[in-house]
Automatic annotation (TrEMBL):
InterPro entries: DUF423. This is DUF423 domain-containing protein. The keyword Membrane applies. It holds the Pfam family DUF423.
Length: 123
């Protein structure tokens, strides 16, 4: 297993842990709908990162494109969730359009995974 796969697995673990913490904060906090959304995005995409790494490592999807998609999932979920979490606790976001940028990158990453599956490694 190469270094990129291990880094992505570590990031997925961190995303999962953060997602659980945000779910707990959302369950116990007042008006915490942003935290619940951030939690869901992190937990869901942590699983997507793990699945994509497994598919790429086994050669089921085009490895480079799949790993690019997994990197996109990790970056975009962190951006989206980070913006929502900062808005909840600090009253302002990371930067203008941070959450929509993260959401758009998530969409692009899912499409990249579709391309990786349609264009497997030859040979």
């Amino acid at each position: 297993m190469n270094r990129a796969y291990r880094i992505l697995i570590v990031l997925a673990g961190i995303m999962g842990a953060d997602g659980v913490m945000l779910a707990a904060a959302a369950a116990h906090g007042a008006d915490a709908s942003r935290l619940a959304a951030a939690s869901s995005v992190l937990l869901f995409h942590a699983c997507a990162v793990l699945g994509t790494v497994a598919l790429a490592e086994r050669g089921i999807v085009h490895a480079r494109t799949g790993i690019t998609a997994a990197c996109g999932f990790a970056l975009a979920a962190g951006l989206f969730a980070g913006d929502l979490t900062l808005r909840h606790y600090a009253g302002h976001g990371l930067f203008p359009m941070a959450a929509p940028t993260g959401g758009t990158l998530l969409i692009v990453s899912w499409l990249a995974l579709a391309v990786a599956a349609a264009w497997p490694k030859r040979g």
